[in-house]
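thought: user wants a sequence for this fold. calling inverse folding tool.
action: design(structure=
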């Protein structure tokens, strides 16, 4: 279905609103005695939300022992095995561009500092997909009861979501994929520690299009900044999944919302004006 965007003046205002929603859901899950699963992208898009959520945790005195952080993807190293294909393994999680590193430091570390000693997210409650057995991730998420809220982001240049490339099947699940050139180019801005395109890994393990659609109880797609003008336009017009812009899957998900900032809206309008 087509989703009317909610427009915020800047990423900070967007992040504060979304963080307040998440904080209420965390509180409600604690009262109900159940886990709360937050699906998270790495990178720039949700950074203002993660910062604001730490503020909410501190202000509300939230305990986070029931929270599970479900990362969407990770870069992968591929070793050729002659005629037998490739062996895949996740990159070192200490590298600056590791999505697990991002989750550990920028999400869990930040939230745990706000929650205080003994009240944070345990290390084993930070999840990431394993390229050696990617299908297990979908089963693990299902056994948890699904993702309470999936935070989603769209690639600026090609609409990738997590590492799902253009053309990803609607029924795709967690799997290893070859990263598109535009995705790799977009990620140069996400991780400035890359010296150039040759430094960006060529493979990743990612939740699939159907993983996002089927496993989420609700989703919020976030796009902000002038570089997301094209993305904002495609997302605003989407009424279902379009394989040439994979982030449009959000429109097929349960209880979808689209949060944009004014810069993205203005840039989108400029692209369509005569």
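)
observation: tool returned 274 residues.
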């Amino acid at each position: 279905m087509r989703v009317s965007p909610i427009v915020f003046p800047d990423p900070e205002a967007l992040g504060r609103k979304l963080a307040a929603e998440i904080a209420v859901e965390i509180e409600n899950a604690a009262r109900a005695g159940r886990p709360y699963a937050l699906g998270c992208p790495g990178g720039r898009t949700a950074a203002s939300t993660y910062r604001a959520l730490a503020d909410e945790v501190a202000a509300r005195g939230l305990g986070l022992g029931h929270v599970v952080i479900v990362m969407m993807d990770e870069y992968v190293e591929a070793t050729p095995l002659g005629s037998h294909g490739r062996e895949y393994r996740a990159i070192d999680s200490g590298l600056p561009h590791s999505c697990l590193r991002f989750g550990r430091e920028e999400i869990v570390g930040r939230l745990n500092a706000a929650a205080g000693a003994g009240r944070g997210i345990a290390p084993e409650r930070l999840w990431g997909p394993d390229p050696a057995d990617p299908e297990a991730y979908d089963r693990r998420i299902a056994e948890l009861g699904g993702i309470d809220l999936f935070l989603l982001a769209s690639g600026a240049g090609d609409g990738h979501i997590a590492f799902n490339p253009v053309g990803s099947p609607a029924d795709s699940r967690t799997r290893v994929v070859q990263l598109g050139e535009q995705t790799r180019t977009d990620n140069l801005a996400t991780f400035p520690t890359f010296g150039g395109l040759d430094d960006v890994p060529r493979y990743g393990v990612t939740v699939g299009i159907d993983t996002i659609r089927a496993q989420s109880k609700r989703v919020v797609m976030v796009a902000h900044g002038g570089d997301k003008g094209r993305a904002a336009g495609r997302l605003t017009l989407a009424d279902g999944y379009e394989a040439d812009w994979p982030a449009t899957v959000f429109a097929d998900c349960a209880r979808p919302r689209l949060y944009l900032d004014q810069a993205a809206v203005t840039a989108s309008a400029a692209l369509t004006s005569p």
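thought: summarizing for user.
answer: Here is the designed sequence. Helices lie at 11-32, 47-60, 99-115, 135-144, 181-190, 209-215, 229-237, 262-272.
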